[in-house]
Structures are given as C-alpha cells and as structure tokens.
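Customer escalation, tier 2.

The customer says the design service returned an amino acid string that "doesn't look like it belongs to this structure." They asked us to rerun it and document both sides in this ticket. The original structure tokens are below, unchanged.
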C-alpha cells in the first residue's frame, strides 16, 4: 500500500505538470478538473488526497462507491466512471456528481426514471468507444447520433459532456486520435437540438496519457495510479 506521504508528493507533481501543460498550450488551469480515481484505495488515502487539494473522486463500482460515500461528507464529490448495470442505478442517483459511463438508451431511461421519482436532474456524460476495442464499453461514433435522436422523452438528465478511455498502447498518435475524435464529436453535437444535451466536458486522460489529453482539450482528467500508486485488486 502507498505511504500517505507519497500521496502529497504525487498530487503536487501532477498539479505542477498540469500547470506546465496549460502554459504550453495556452489553456486555463481552472477549466481542468482533476478527478482522483480511488477504486481499490482505502478511505484514509482519500482523506489524504483531500488535504492536498483534491475535491473529486472517481469510482467504477457501485458498492465501493457507496462505501466511500457513507464515510464521506458533502464537500467531496464522487463520480461514477465504470460500467453501470441498470439494476444498480437506484443505488447511486442523487449521490454522485456525475455518471460518466452512460452507454445505452436503456440505461439512460432507467437513470431518468429514478431521477424523476426523486425529483432531481442527474448530470451525465456519454461514454464513447473511440478506440473501437471490443473490450471497451461505450457508444461507437456512428451510434451517437441515433442515441441523441432518441432522447425526446428524457427530462431528468442533463448530458454535460463525453467520456472516453484512450487506447492502451505506446503509440502516442493512436492515443491522440481517440482524444481528437472525442473533441470532434463534442463540437459536432454540443447543442444537439435538445434542452438536455449541452456538451461542455471532455472527460479523457488517465495516468499514462493525461498530458496528451490536456493538449487535445480535456476538461476532466481521471487519474488513479499516478496519485495512489499501483492498485491491488486482491484487497
Ligand atoms: C481506473 C480508471 C482510470 C484511472 O486509471 P489510471 O491509469 O490508474 O490513472 C480512469 N478512468 C477509468 C474509466 C478507470 O476505470
């Protein structure tokens, strides 16, 4: 397990890298949110990260997310970044800042229904499979328009952006292409003829590719390993 001390060092290092990248690319540091991905990480480490300026955390499993939220306070934001099963939607609505992994109309309808029953609007991102790897969740580029065309009965969701996972490769060009594609789609559909679709956010960039993601316009970086160290899935 990572030493708490290292979390401070890691966070400072990342903030400073984001800063440098922003200067080089003439971007505003404040328009980039660092989401610390805390899956498999214990709550003490979360609290340590909060001490050094992290306000937002990403989790990929509903159960673990709820465990963390139950120990948390309202100053900490949680985001669901992993695949969400329809039958678990009821366990997270109203508790997370965003659901970043919306990847089907069926899931959208369920999020909408539960949000409606609780009289609230849920902020969501649409996950796009930009790498076209079969193992990845997300709508394919050519499915996005049909999806957006199908939202006419949805009133309790706001789609505020797009999310993607860059392809896992050493080839920087291929990673960059994923991010370029996401940005292109955001611009194409940013006000897609709908009150509920206002795409502003680009959630892209992880430990190994966040600097490329900043260059390509990311507004939400989801970084785990570079903050909390290698994950131990056996815990
Ligand atoms: C685990 C995870 C991350 C963080 O990955 P690191 O490489 O550890 O930074 C980001 N996004 C998603 C969707 C994840 O599941």
């Amino acid at each position: 397990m990572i030493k708490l001390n290292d979390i401070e060092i890691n966070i400072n290092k990342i903030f400073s890298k984001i800063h440098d990248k922003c200067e080089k690319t003439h971007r505003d540091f404040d328009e980039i949110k660092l989401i610390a991905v805390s899956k498999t990480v214990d709550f003490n480490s979360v609290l340590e990260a909060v001490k050094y300026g992290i306000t937002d955390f990403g989790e990929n499993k509903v159960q673990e997310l709820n465990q963390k939220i139950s120990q948390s306070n309202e100053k900490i934001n949680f985001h669901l970044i992993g695949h969400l099963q329809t039958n678990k939607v009821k366990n997270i609505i109203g508790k997370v800042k965003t659901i970043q992994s919306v990847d089907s109309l069926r899931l959208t309808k369920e999020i909408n229904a539960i949000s409606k029953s609780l009289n609230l609007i849920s902020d969501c991102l649409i996950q796009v499979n930009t790498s076209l790897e079969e193992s990845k969740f997300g709508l394919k580029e050519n499915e996005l328009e049909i999806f957006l065309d199908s939202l006419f009965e949805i009133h309790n969701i706001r789609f505020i952006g797009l999310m993607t996972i860059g392809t896992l490769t050493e080839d920087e060009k291929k990673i960059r292409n994923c991010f370029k594609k996401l940005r292109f789609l955001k611009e194409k559909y940013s006000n897609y003829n709908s009150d509920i679709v206002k795409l502003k956010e680009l959630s892209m960039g992880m430990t190994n590719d966040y600097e490329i993601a900043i260059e390509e316009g990311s507004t939400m970086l989801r970084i785990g390993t570079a903050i909390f160290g290698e994950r131990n899935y056996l815990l």
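Tier 2 assessment: The sequence is consistent with the input. The mean pLDDT is 95. Residues 26 and 96 are 31 Å apart (CA to CA). Sent an explanation to the customer and offered a walkthrough call.
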